[in-house]
Every structure is written in structure tokens, then in C-alpha cells.
Amino acid sequence: MPTTRATAAVAVDRVSKTFRVPTEKVHTLKETALHPFRRRAFNEFVALRDVSFDVAHGEFLGIVGRNGSGKSTLLKCMAGIYRVDSGDIYVDGRLSAFIELGVGFNMDLPARDNVLINGTMLGLTPREARRRYDSVIDFAELREFEQLKIKNYSSGMLVRLAFAVMIHVDAEILLVDEVLAVGDAAFQQKCFDEFYRLRDENRTVILVTHDMSAVERFCDRAVLFEKGDVVREGEPQRVGMDYLELNFGRPEASPVDPGDPARSGDGEAEIVEAWFEDHDGARASMLELGRPCAFAARVRFAAAADHPVFAVSVENAAHDTVFGASTEWQEGGTGHFDAGEEAVFRVRFDNVLAPGRYEATPAVAQRGSGSKLMDRRQRLASIVVSGTHSSGALLELPFDAAVERAGQPAEAES
Prior knowledge:
This protein is α+β, with helices and mostly antiparallel strands. It is built from 8 helices and 22 strands. Helices cover about 20% and strands about 35% of the residues.
């Protein structure tokens, strides 16, 4: 059933927001006093321009876009931090926001006071905020620093505290801005675990991030912003591809078809074909569970490339990514290829994929920071995995199982 304003958790209706940026700075009170009637010039920066979309109850929405595209401004408008210039934002439910470091915190107070104040501001009673304090501080792993004023916290400690407060207030709607950008790997995994829990509980989550893998992993839908406008709204994988194109660009004239919605890249290389191989090395449309197999792709280079990166991701029928491989960290690189040369990228593995249909998305990119895409062909090759049994899991890993009777005394040696 399509989302309407009556059924939406959040409805954004033709919202616009403009900031006035002064072209001349006044640095002292003396300057202001000496020239009280001086007219100051301003430039206008349009952060949001006539933005509209709805978020259904229980939906996990990703908002992506380059820096300055208006993502965080929109979240601050939703949270009531900014007032919109025109349009309306409707929110149906208690809202909790994680927007930026330090917002809502008093830096001269310790963690306990900040947790109690923020919890109360977000809808908890003072008694409930005190009851949940231990759970919040333990989740943030800040027990030994709870009496320290938070102005002495690192950015990672502040993130952990703010995120812990946000997920403990039982809000129906959560706004999360770049929580994965700060913090160590262990905390990021905690965030992932919480996102899974929130999704299972059908909470409404709006996530702003530059991490396209997180968008594909968690989000039901995604919205792409560019210069204050919504330029695409829909399937996370398609929106993610458009985001990469905005960052890395794609020439209009190239061997890569710019009209193909399942393809992206700058055209300096072309993935001509891709296929799966069985245990004998023959091309196959079906693979046996538990047998060796391979994925392969043939790439033709339109321009010279030094040590290009070859990669593939494999997803099941539910579009869950179950396997991925890349040459990015291959020792010695992949070599030099001249224009017109071809290469075959092959990944061999033991087939532990559960029975079902799978599709492979190969990609080739220039090596280096950002891995500029030359070609990526979404779901280019398909395979069916057959097997006589299935555990219902994504993978069928080989294992040994044993059962021992507990508490049985050992036999005495003779």
C-alpha cells in the first residue's frame, strides 16, 4: 500500500531552507558600534529546494548525497533545530535524534547529568531516565568516565554516549546522521547490531550516511540529494550507484552505455561478459552445493590502466549480499593493461551457498583513493545452486557436530 500523509511516520511537504551568508565579517564589538548603520551584504545559500517525500511507519530510509547537498539540514529541520522557510514537516510519533556531536549536551556536566537531562527531554520521565542510566552508560562503555565532565571526552566517547541515549528512549522515529563516521570498529559493529534490532522491531529510522554498504544492508528505500534537490528516490542499490556516479562522474561518450540503469562507470574499461564455472572449469547455469566452483568476468580496456581493481559481489534472491571478492589488497597488484587489451578476472571458491538463485555484480575500478569506477554491471551473471538439504541459513558451511552426555563420570583406568 503506498504511503500517504495520513499513514506516514514522517511527511516532508515542499520544504525549502535558505541560509544568508555574510560576505563581510565583523570581528569586534567596536566595529559594530562605530558603524551601526552600515549595510551588510549577504549571499544566499539554498540548502533545500521544494523537497517532498514520505516515510512509512516501520520503514528504514537512507538519505545520501555529497557534502553540502542538504542531508543534515533536512534532519535538523525534522528535529526542530532549524525552522523551514516554506513547506511543512509532519511527524507522527515520538522522535529521537542523533544529529551531530555535542548537540543537546552540556559540556560542563558529567555523563550522568547529561543522560538524565537528555532522556527527559526526549520523553522519558525523570524516574525512567534514572532507571535506564546504568544500561545507557554500560552500552556506551563509559563506566570509568561517568564522573568526568564530557568536555574532556574524545569524539568517539561523545558519539557512544549520544547514540546510547538515543536508542534507550523508546522513540518510534529515530534520526541518525553519520553515526558510522566516528568510532572504532567495535562500536560500529554495535551500531550494526542495533540497526538490525530496530529494523526487527519495525521502528522508523532515517539514516544519513556516506556508507553505501550500510544503505544497501539496512535500508528499505533511499533518497539521493544533490544541491538541495531530491534527484532520485527508490531502491537502495540503484540510488547507491547514482551516488557513486555523482562523485566520480561518467562521460557521455564511452563504451559503457549511459542509458543502461544497471550500469555505471567512466567507460575506460568495459565488462564484456561474466559467468560461473563448475568444478571442472566449464561454464555452468547450475552449481552443486559443496563442490569447488568459480566466478569469471572478461574485461576490455579502452584506456591504459595500472593495477586496476577487479571485484564481484554475489547476492541471493532477497538481494542480501552473501559473498564478495576483490583484488584491492592483492600483493603486487594486477599489472598494467594497454588500451585494447583484455583480462579475465576469476574467483575460485568452495560452494557453500544455500540452494537457490544468485546473481553476481562485477566491477572494475582504478586503483587508489576512492577507487574510481570504470565499469560496474549490476546482476550481470546468474546461477542456481542445487542441493539435497538446506538448513535455512544463507550459507551451508561444512561442520562436525558431537553430542556428549553431561555429568557422566569418567571410567576408572584399570
